[in-house]
Amino acid sequence: MQQTLGPIGHLLETKLHAAFAPAKLEVVDESNQHHGHAGANPSGESHFRVRISAADFHGKSRVAQHRMVNDVLADELKTRVHALAIEIV
Amino acid sequence: MTIHEQIDKDVKSNDIVLYMKGTADMPQCGFSGRSVQILQHLGVPFKDVNVLASDELRQGIKDYTNWPTVPQLYVKGEFVGGADILMEMYQSGELKQLLADKGVA
Q: CB of B71 within 8 A of CB of B20?
């Protein structure tokens, strides 16, 4: 079951919108699939999936595309967000 | 030897290295487990490095690659990607091709 986004999820959305003006953006909180797993935060919002489509990604390698997303969300990845699945669509 | 030198040596002296949480026999994370399965499906030997073995390594590999998450796959000293990239490349056949191109499959 998909969770409603909390404050961290909304923050990720806001940052990605600002950085890439994406044609398509979906941030999914998958934390409940990792309940009790090492790194999972008991209050949730630790595991996310991002589906994003933006002109900036065209012609870049997968590693480069993922780095662009990771860079924008670097602060969150260092602290609260334990796992981020990225789909460039 | 610094952790950076250790990682550099490992990725350059082994054809395929997977930095992961847990071991190939006992992965401690779903993403790491899926990456192991992909390599096993492709039938290629690889060195598994458990980043949970030390905090220094766990942080060191993120810094070395400039990549915030684990697992991380290296082929012939070159960073290929994390779990999502491996899955995409596996499904499209690109990973098999890459391994063949690098002469390790």
A: yes
State the ipTM, two decimals.
0.84
Q: Which residues of A touch B83 (CB under 8 A)?
A: 85
pTM for the complete prediction?
Answer: 0.87
Shortest distance, CA B70 to any CA of chain A (angstroms)? 9
State how far the Cα of B84 lies from the Cα of A23, in Å rounded to an integer. Answer: 21
Verify whether the Cβ–Cβ distance A77 to B84 is below 8 Å. Answer: no
User: What domains does chain A contain, in order, with CATH numbers?
Assistant: 7-88 (3.30.300.90)
Q: Which of A33, A66, A67, A75 to mutate to test the interface with B (most CBs of B within 10 A)?
A: A66
Assigned token pair, B53: 């073995």
- The 10s digit of each residue's pLDDT in B84-103 is 999 999 999 999 999 999 99
* Domains assigned to chain B: 3-101 (3.40.30.10)
